[in-house]
Amino acid sequence: MANRFSIKHQPGFTAIAATCFIVLYLPIVVLVIYAFNAATSTSEWGGFSFKWFQSAWQNTQVIDATLRSFQIGAIAAVFATIFATMAALATTRTAPYPGLTFKYAAINQPLMVPEIVTGVALLIFFSRIKIFTGYSGLGYLIAAHTAFCIPFAYLPIRARLENMDLTLERAAADLYATPWRTFRRITLPLLWPGILAGLMLAFVISLDDVVITEFVKSGGQDTLPTYMLGQIRRGITPEINAISTVFLLLSVVIVTLFFFISRKRD
Amino acid sequence: MNWKTTATAIGLALLASTSLARADGELNIYNWGNYTSPDVIKKFEAKYNVKVTITDYDSNDTALAKVRQGGTGFDIAVPSQTYVPIWIKEGLVQETDPGKMENFKNVAPEWANPEFDPGRKYSVPWALGTVGVVVNTDAYKGPADSWGIIFNTPDELKGKVNVVPEMNDVIFAAIKYVGGQQCTTDKEVLKKVRDTLVAAKPNWIAMEYNTIEKMGAGDFKATSDWNGSALRQRLANPAIHYNYPKEGFGLWSDNVVVLKEAKNVENAKLFQNFIMDPENAAGLSAFHRYANAIVGSDKYMPADMKDAPEVVIPAADKPHAELQQMCAPEIQDIYTKIWTELQK
Amino acid sequence: MATAEEVAKAAERRDIRDRWLLSAPALLVIFLAATGPLLIVLVYSFLTPGSYGDVKWQFSPEAWVAVFLERDIFDDTLSVAAAHVTIFLRSIKLSVVTTIATLALGFPTAYFMATRSEKTRDLWLFLITIPFWTNLLIRTFAVLQIIRNEGILNTILLKLGIISSPIQILYTDTAILIGMAYVYLPLMVLPIYASMEKLDFRLVEAGYDLYATRFKVLRKIIFPLVKPGVIAGSILVFIPALGAYVTPSVLGGGKNMMLSNLIELQFGQGRNWPLGSALSIAVMIIVMVALLAYVRNAGKSGVRHG
């Protein structure tokens, strides 16, 4: 009997999802188009031109800032995801034990305070350390970003973990597998979509941070958002669009490569 | 698992790059965003063989807060004249004595011995400007040299006026509009200010900084704004005019100071001297579109700025200019309360 | 010779100790670079404002009083701080509406992504995050471009003849909502996706075998199973949205303060760091209490695992 009833289908869901994807990319398309704007405006079209790409190429400050954003973002996201995974394993799928609620609150704490407050607090705290040790490299920014990215990575991973029951892992233990082996061969592959989701989220959050970075940064440590913040009062030009387009392109290329490489592994 | 090793390698490389050594002969400038001419910097770098880094800030308060805490790594900062006395009083700047430097003779007499830095012991003028009213004359043809455009908006402009959310500028303008004195302690005047602001707000469409875009696109038809921004708007649309309110308008100047914790003091001093040279001052002005306080720079100014009414204050309006000052903390407190009341 | 009970207890202790070790790095980083420095903020909330920002090391409860009560500027009467309440409620309202909007849009999207074939699922995951690799400010400006009076949305509607003059969307609350939903969508989609991807569709099939309607299956089978994801998503949207100010400023015109604007004012032009500190701690406590209550309650009816 031909069964055309799909158990996965829910009415309207695909339509909504499709609309979401279109709407998500629409502003991006606009952004890319205006990168080619001959006029100095990000809203009035004045003809087609490559001049913003040229000026962006020569603007060492903005390229520097963008590279730094990605650098900090990548490092912070990786660390945050690793720590978050460990923390999720520690706080999920267990009967309540003393300190569990405290841990949960502590891990999510960075979310709960407006960024300006964390920014000011870190400014005061880190300045003391900067003066004391004389070190003023990117370490502070990376530490700060890792800290506030952890809850963003933690929550998706935890959500995923809560859906995984322990039977498979128990079976592995019964077969004398060590905890590490169990983790690597069973838990990790099952958890992977959650980890990936957490990683993506952490990266995106770090890239966008402006307030905390503004207060923690030292000389020569502008990121793209802090650079743009400075632009707002004096007028933004499509140079920003040009930079964003280039990096968007790069991101897409990197992601596609990563995708193909991991496909090959299978 | 080849991709794993690649990933680790990339990761290590990223980490390592965070500790790359710096070159010798440096200068770290902490300035407003989009305010430093890359050409003038290149000229400075070439002349003195110094590598210049620029880090941005978006407000006087952020800059003050960061420098106060220390350990920033900046050599030079550019606070506004209202803040310069605070920086001096709190011991954040070095006495580099620009008043005795070689190029100091070029500084215009009215800016050579200001109240905020007597004898110019610490600072050098970077840019000068005013705060006024910008109107798109296609939308409104009446007289616009008054804060009434903002606080008692004519019908044609209702719902099309923007106000740049600089608290001190707006309250200064409102005080002038109701006839008071800058930093007044008169509660009656302040009450009128509060009431005027709250009554005027429904006629405003927005309170944001993005005036160049929005005036150009026609989203706004009038706004309070800085003169340099108005210049850019007029160059994009000749119907846009900058007006100096007759009730009184604010005059400001941003100044270059050398931080006490500066590591490259000699290079910083060279920079302070460098920007007092007429040609360099004009180069800076050409980028940020504001006037400078250096005599003789007008030879080098770009054509569209030489006689621009935004840059050169017309003689008739000069008497209404008033240098903005920092008010006492209790007064600032009242201002903040009025501002919160306005925006709640 | 240890009894079975003692062995079990020892194992339990070891388990708890392991769990502390596992969560140690996360807790350490957060303590050093987020929570710890907040102690400074707590201390600051009990000090006196410095003349030009920063603080004077002098005890004062003024800041905490000012969070809840205000003195009228001109006639000195004491009353509840109406401005603070208004601003707080405004931010809460926006957060709630944003959370609902992103849930309504994000749930189907996550479902769609989770029901793709194994091969393409990762691809969809990347696809949904790529737009968010561009800067928030730029994205918000791009949204602005679209909803402006001469923007794409209005132009299309005009050309299609649906409207006769441009609808003023920009600078209204609708604009803010559109912007917020746009910005916070991935924070809702990703956790729900992570939860849904593991969904065992045999359970769904069982529901249909028992003649349940699609809606009933959705409500009684799918939704409870992906609840952890929905909870995570809601938290990740609601709390950051509470602290949002870039998007509301750019799209709403900045005429009305959000919670973050109020706090930022105290650390900026307002020069009252103790008040800013006190406001922040107050907000944090309220949010933390709400968060714990929400998680306790919502988690109660979750699926139990042994």
Question: How would you sum up this structure, described in words?
Answer:
The complex is a heterotrimer of chains A (266), B (344) and C (306). Chain A contains eleven helices and no strands. Chain A is an all-alpha fold. Chain A has a domain at 63-235: MetI-like (MetI-like fold, Orthogonal Bundle). Chain A is globular, with a radius of gyration of 23 Å. Chain B is an alpha/beta fold and 344 residues long. Chain B folds into two domains: 24-128 and 252-306, D-Maltodextrin-Binding Protein, domain 2 (3-Layer(aba) Sandwich); 130-250 and 314-343, D-Maltodextrin-Binding Protein, domain 2. Chain B has 14 helices and ten strands. Chain B has helices spanning 2-17, 38-48, 60-69, 84-89, 109-112, 148-151, 167-177, 187-200, 211-217, 227-236, 265-274, 278-288, 303-306, 329-343, and strands at residues 26-32, 51-57, 76-77, 124-136, 161-162, 204-206, 222-226, 240-243, 249-258, 321-323. In chain B, strands 1, 2, 3, 4, 5, 6, 7, 8, 9 and 10 form a ten-stranded mixed beta sheet that branches. In chain B, helix 2 (38-48) links the parallel strand 1 and strand 2. In chain B, helix 7 (167-177) packs across helix 8 (187-200) and helix 9 (211-217) packs parallel to helix 10 (227-236). The longest helix of chain B has 16 residues, at 2-17. Chain C is flat. In chain C, 48% of the residues are buried. By secondary structure, chain C is mostly helical. In chain C, 71% of the residues lie in helices and 5% in strands. Chains in contact: A-B, A-C, B-C. Chains A and B meet through helix 3, helix 5, helix 10 and helix 11 of A and helix 1, strand 1, strand 2, helix 3 and helix 9 of B.
SSE diagram, text form:
The complex is a heterotrimer of chains A (266), B (344) and C (306).
Chain A: H1 13-34, H2 51-58, H3 60-91, H4 100-112, H5 115-133, H6 139-162, H7 167-174, H8 179-208, H9 211-216, H10 224-232, H11 239-265
Helix pairs in contact in A: 2-11, 3-6, 3-8, 3-10, 4-6, 6-8, 7-8
Chain B: H1 2-17, E1 26-32, H2 38-48, E2 51-57, H3 60-69, E3 76-77, H4 84-89, H5 109-112, E4 124-136, H6 148-151, E5 161-162, H7 167-177, H8 187-200, E6 204-206, H9 211-217, E7 222-226, H10 227-236, E8 240-243, E9 249-258, H11 265-274, H12 278-288, H13 303-306, E10 321-323, H14 329-343
Parallel strand pairs in B: 1-2, 1-3, 5-6, 5-7, 9-10
Antiparallel strand pairs in B: 3-9, 4-7, 4-8, 4-9
Helix pairs in contact in B: 7-8, 8-14, 9-10
Chain C: H1 4-44, E1 47-49, E2 55-59, H2 62-68, E3 69-71, E4 78-80, H3 82-114, H4 118-129, H5 136-147, H6 152-159, H7 173-196, H8 201-209, H9 214-225, H10 227-242, H11 246-252, H12 259-267, H13 273-300
Helix pairs in contact in C: 2-13, 3-7, 3-10, 5-7, 5-11, 7-10, 7-11, 8-9, 10-13, 12-13
